[in-house]
Design brief:
Belongs to the precorrin methyltransferase family. InterPro entries: 4pyrrol_Mease (IPR000878), 4pyrrol_Methylase_sf (IPR035996), 4pyrrole_Mease_sub1 (IPR014777), 4pyrrole_Mease_sub2 (IPR014776), CobA/CysG_C (IPR006366), NAD(P)-bd_dom_sf (IPR036291), Siro_Cobalamin_biosynth (IPR050161), Sirohaem_synth (IPR012409). It holds the Pfam family CysG_dimeriser. The structure is a single chain. The protein is α/β, with parallel strands linked by helices and about 475 residues long. It has four domains: about 100 residues, Rossmann fold; about 60 residues; about 110 residues, 3-Layer(aba) Sandwich (Cobalt-precorrin-4 Transmethylase, domain 1), CATH 3.40.1010.10; about 140 residues, Tetrapyrrole methylase, C-terminal domain (Methyltransferase, Cobalt-precorrin-4 Transmethylase, Domain 2, 2-Layer Sandwich). The strands form five sheets. It has a six-stranded mixed sheet with strand order 13-16-19-17-18-20, sandwiched between helices. Strands 3-2-1-4-5 form a five-stranded parallel sheet, with helices on both faces. It has a five-stranded parallel sheet with strand order 10-9-11-8-12, sandwiched between helices. α2 links the parallel β2 and β3. The protein is elongated, with a radius of gyration of 32 Å. Bound molecules: S-adenosyl-L-homocysteine. The site of S-adenosyl-L-homocysteine has 26 residues, from α12, β17 and β19.
């Protein structure tokens, strides 16, 4: 069967970068539309010939300056012979159709400006950082989108990128002295994102010597040393990743991740990165901590950039210290990239704050169970009115926490919210009270990660309870 014929999937326009140096390019038209196209074409080394009976001043000026050849008559048969490209830019549909027909007959590829359907090729939106050129095409479907992407890239790509790339290109041969793969990648990474942008501020002349020094330093380093980034992946929504986390994922050679890190986030890792699932289930099954420590160190020792990707914030119930100790003992460099912890995502999900004037000026981040089993806390302090706690890994220990708090005098009607899959499309919120926490939780049969927010009701339920003039919020599920 012949593949690639599915028109729904087919790319109508195949993007290429055409070398126009010395090639003939013809354009029919002498008004504003023609000027806009010519401005772009003048960035190339094409031999431009313009046919116009009434050329505007700008077109005349370019002709006087010898930048284009101006022919003061209408486009005719044979005018596009030997031309690589022909543009019909007459602002007149009839004229354009005539020019297109003639140019096609001469064997040129034809573009009618602002007429996608009758054009053989289109000129994309361009971000120009010569020699880096980004072309954006939407098959004419969404020019607004193309413009937005262009604007975004214009902002994101520093203006110095062009000169840096040009200078870098001249250095390519010398850099071959570095071993292929990671050492070279590291060198270029440091050049484009650190040394280059820093030195070019003092002028382009400052860059080559700095590049030389950088290369000498990289050649001196006996062997690339790995690094470990302990990165917070946030609660699950990829939009809640920090820019730093994204950058770390972009650079990673190996990503060792938790069970709770969502596939959408793993998608963002560098394509060549090796993904290792160190998924730990609740009460310590799956990969043992020692084994994870060993893996991190082994990969980093081989010179890899290891991203240890943990759900939420790595410093919250992440067994981070054990891993840092292992990495330190191996003499490796490491850094922590904080993330949005589940408690932050969960309170956002119920429209509340973790702290509030005149209600609670402190908040407890706690777990219902630790490695030894149920974790003990200062229950009496927590039982006081107005206290707030975010209880991680709370599903299994809800009954224990509930019992302890009631025993130490907490109000049975204290509001409690349970947020499952905070920030994810499947987010669920249970609004209940301390007295009802169990059996509500068990009955709900949650199967995703859930956090218990003690002392907080979803804003809507809080409002509902007030309006009914009773603090007793019944156990209900609120679809937010
Ligand atoms: N370092 C993580 C917590 C790891 S402990 C952080 O900062 O969020 C794992 C516990 O985190 C789970 O048992 C659950 O209580 C909580 N958790 C993680 N992601 C969650 C999510 N998306 N929604 C609700 N709770 C979550």
């Amino acid at each position: 069967m012949y593949e690639g014929r599915n028109t729904e999937l087919a790319m109508q326009h195949f993007p290429i970068f055409l070398n126009l140096a010395g090639r003939r390019v013809v354009l029919s038209g002498g008004g504003e539309t023609a000027v806009a196209k010519l401005r772009l074409l003048l960035k190339t080394e094409a031999r431009l010939t313009v046919f116009a009976t009434e050329p505007c001043d700008q077109v005349r000026a370019w002709a006087d300056a010898g930048r284009i050849t101006l022919v003061g008559r209408a486009f005719g048969p044979g005018d596009a012979l030997c031309a690589a490209l022909a543009y019909a830019a007459n602002d007149d549909a009839g004229q354009d159709a005539r020019v297109a027909r003639l140019a096609r007959a001469d064997g040129a590829l034809v573009n009618i400006v602002d007429n996608l359907g009758d054009s053989q090729f289109i000129t994309p939106a361009i971000v120009d950082r010569d020699p880096v050129t980004v072309a954006i095409g939407t098959e004419g479907a969404a020019p607004v989108l193309a413009r937005a992407i262009k604007r975004d890239l214009e902002e994101r790509l520093p203006a110095t990128l062009g000169p840096l790339a040009r200078i870098g290109k001249a250095f390519r041969g010398a850099v071959e002295a570095l071993p292929f793969g990671k050492p070279r990648r590291d060198f270029w990474q440091e050049y484009y994102f650190a040394t280059g942008p820093r030195t070019i501020e003092a002028g382009e002349d400052a860059v080559p010597p700095a590049l030389g020094a950088l290369l000498a330093r990289h050649l001196d380093t006996p062997e690339a040393r790995g690094v470990v980034d302990f990165v917070g992946a946030g609660p699950g929504d990829p939009d809640l990743l920090t820019l730093k986390a994204r950058k770390a994922l972009d650079k990673a050679d190996v990503v060792i991740h938790d069970r709770l890190v969502t596939p959408e986030i793993l998608e963002l890792a560098r394509r060549e990165a090796v993904l290792v699932d160190a998924g730990k289930e609740g009460f310590g099954r799956a990969m043992a901590q020692d084994e994870i420590n060993r893996l991190i160190v082994a990969h980093a020792r081989e010179g890899a950039h290891v991203v240890r990707l943990k759900s939420g914030d790595p410093t919250v119930f992440g067994r981070l210290d054990e891993e840092i100790e292992a990495v330190e003992a191996a003499g490796l460099d490491w850094a922590i990239v904080p993330g949005i912890t589940a408690a932050s995502a969960a309170v956002a999900g119920i429209g509340q704050s973790l702290t509030k004037r005149a209600r609670n000026s402190s908040v407890r981040v706690m777990t219902g169970h630790d490695m030894k089993g149920f974790a003990d806390h200062d229950w009496r302090a927590l039982a006081r009115a107005g206290e707030v706690a975010a209880i991680y890994m709370g599903k299994r220990s809800a009954r224990f926490v509930q019992g302890r708090l009631l025993m130490h005098g907490a109000d049975p009607l204290t509001p409690v919210s349970v947020v499952e899959n905070a920030s994810r499309p499947e987010q669920r919120v249970l609004a209940t009270t301390l007295a009802q926490l169990e059996p509500t939780l068990t009955q709900a049969g949650l199967d995703g990660p859930a956090i218990i927010l003690f002392g907080l009701a979803p804003r809507r339920a809080a409002a509902l309870a007030r309006s009914l003039d009773t603090p007793d919020v019944t156990s209900e599920e609120i679809a937010l």
